[in-house]
C-alpha cells in the first residue's frame, strides 16, 4: 500500500531533522525542527520556495534554516542574501552560495 502524501512529507521532515542533528517539532503553524536556538523549515514538494513564502516564514516563525527539495526562486535567493544574510538556504543537501 502506498504512503499518503502528508505521511511522506512528515517522514521527510523527520529524516532531515536527524540529518541536521536537530529535534523534530512539526505541527501546523510551527517550525519543522529545532537545534538549540536555530529553527528550521523543510519543504518536500515539486515547486520552489517563493519570495513571499520565505519572508512570511522568517517573520512569523523565526526560521533561520530553510531546506527545500525543489530549491528556491531567484527573487527569494536575492532577497534572503540582501535582507536576511543570517538565514541559511539549503537545497538537496547543498548550501546555496551567496552572491557577492
What does this protein structure show overall?
The protein is α/β, with parallel strands linked by helices and 100 residues long. It has a single domain (5-95), classed as Trna Endonuclease, Chain: A, domain 1, CATH 3.40.1350. Helix content is 36%, strand content 21%. The protein is built from three helices and six strands; from the N terminus they run αβββαβαββ. The chain has helices spanning 5-19, 51-61, 74-83, and strands at residues 23-24, 33-35, 38-43, 65-68, 88-91, 94-95. A six-stranded mixed sheet has the order 1-2-3-4-5-6, covered by helices on one side. A hairpin with an 8-residue loop joins strand 1 and strand 2 (33-35). Helix 2 runs parallel beside helix 3 (74-83). The longest helix has 15 residues, at 5-19. It is globular, with a radius of gyration of 13 Å. The mean pLDDT is 90.
